[in-house]
Amino acid sequence: MKYQAERELVIKYAVEMEDRDLTVGTSGNVSMRVDDGAIITPSTIPYKEIRPEDCCLLDLEGGVLEGEKIPSVEHKVHLECYKARSDVNAVIHAHPTVASAFAAARIPLPAFLDEFGVYVGDEVRVAEYAISGTVEIAKSAVDTMGETANAVFLASHGMVCVGRDLAGAMHVARQVERGAQIYLWTKMLGGPVDLPEDSKNLFAQVFAFYRTR
Questions:
Q1: What pLDDT band is residue 77 in, cutting at 50, 70 and 90?
Q2: What is the pTM assigned to this prediction?
Q3: Which of 6, 16, 18, 74 is catalytic?
Q4: Is 74 a catalytic residue?
Q5: pLDDT tens across 13-63, in order?
Q6: H helices within the chain, ranges in order?
Q7: Fold (topology level) of 4-212
Q8: For the purposes of burial, counting CB atoms within 10 Å of the CB of 94, is it exposed (0-12), middle (13-18) or buried (19 or more)?
């Protein structure tokens, strides 16, 4: 079996995703890029019960290279992210409560906090609705996220977060959920104050720098 260490890392972050209440049950999925394609969590197995051999090794076209389990139904989203963004080496698809509310309401989350602009990038936009597991939802997610953000909401579904590694993708996921919570609280206080343009420009430069490191 290839990529033992990478499989263990994928499982570690899948368990962390559940422990941090970024998803419920077996919803959501985690993957990382490898030389042959990507390692991704299997479908319908509780995260704390996944063994390294249960993870699926896929090529970037979705072909199963290793693994007897069925790959996550959303594997197309992960693979499209890898094909579209050379800077992306990890993808986390999660269903956290507040971020999912934004996705269900189809409301984008602006980059209204300093650290949000640095790590998440531009606003988290909402990809057009498509049925889970289809090529349409995968392409919609990647096209909507573009290259100026590390996250995207899937309409009436959840969110997809990317990073240079799994730690980075997890940090983005936590930033988005935290940002969504803070944004709702600020709305109770009259709404967030927009950042100055020079600050936005600076954070965009820092975001671009981190992407190319």
A1: very high
A2: 0.94
A3: 74
A4: yes
A5: 999 999 999 999 999 999 999 999 999 999 999 999 999 999 999 999 999
A6: 4-19, 75-84, 97-105, 114-119, 135-145, 166-188, 197-212
A7: L-fuculose-1-phosphate Aldolase (3.40.225)
A8: buried
